Amino acid sequence: MQEIYAGGPNGAGAGTSRIDFIRKTYTNLAGAMLAFVALSMVLHMAGFGFGMLKVIAGAKFMWLAFMGGFMLVGWLATNLADNAESNQKQLMGLGIYVVAEAVMFSPLFALASKVAPGAIGAAAFITLLLVAALTWTAFTVKTNFSFLGGFLRVGGLVALGAIIVSVIFGFSLGIWFSALMVLFAGACVLYDTSKIIHEYPTDRPAGAALHLFASIALMLWYVLRILISLASSDD
């Protein structure tokens, strides 16, 4: 979930119907998800994630630097996808964001493969079920969930602050924080889907796909963290 929406008044685009826009958005989203899976597999087979785990474990604040770099690249990619005039540049922004997410996930996937074999597939399945249910809800009810935007901005800042504090002082946020973040990510999916249905500029399908992909990736991250925590507690 991001908060950069460009375009004409009331989310109007350049002569593209809302139905065509929604179709293009989900086509771009499907492509982004497939590219994320493929790139994640390549990085995992190359041992990139295990290397990142060693780097992060060797320096207390390396994770903050890693996360800060991801946020910067994500912000630049989002601006490109949302504000570029040409479809090619918008897709370039989406592609850059997918690469950044694959790199960000690589140490988590490496950890999961060590301590919770099978958790990655299970997390992906759970995430897809949750996203499907939320998407069905957004498309079948008449409510415009854009009112969630203010709550999500505040919640995102609080969550980010909690993560930074936990890294600085060296304590774990625990499984309950992950559960709350899954709920937060679900609200982001609902918000982004509602934006796509009702308000997002129709000449920005790649940007819309990026926002929704980011929310889905956030959900996957914390669902996987929950499964890793459960597997670790069983040992």
UniProtKB/TrEMBL annotation:
The keyword Transmembrane applies. Belongs to the BI1 family. Keywords: Membrane, Transmembrane, Transmembrane helix. It comes from the Bacteria. The chain crosses the membrane at residues 26-49, 61-81, 93-112, 118-139, 151-169, 175-194, 206-228. It is found in: Membrane. The lineage of its organism: Bacteria, Pseudomonadati, Pseudomonadota, Betaproteobacteria, Burkholderiales. It holds the Pfam family Bax1-I. This is Permease. The keyword Transmembrane applies. One of its GO terms (cellular component) is plasma membrane. It comes from Piscinibacter gummiphilus. Its main location: membrane. InterPro entries: Bax_inhibitor_1-related. It is a multi-pass membrane protein.
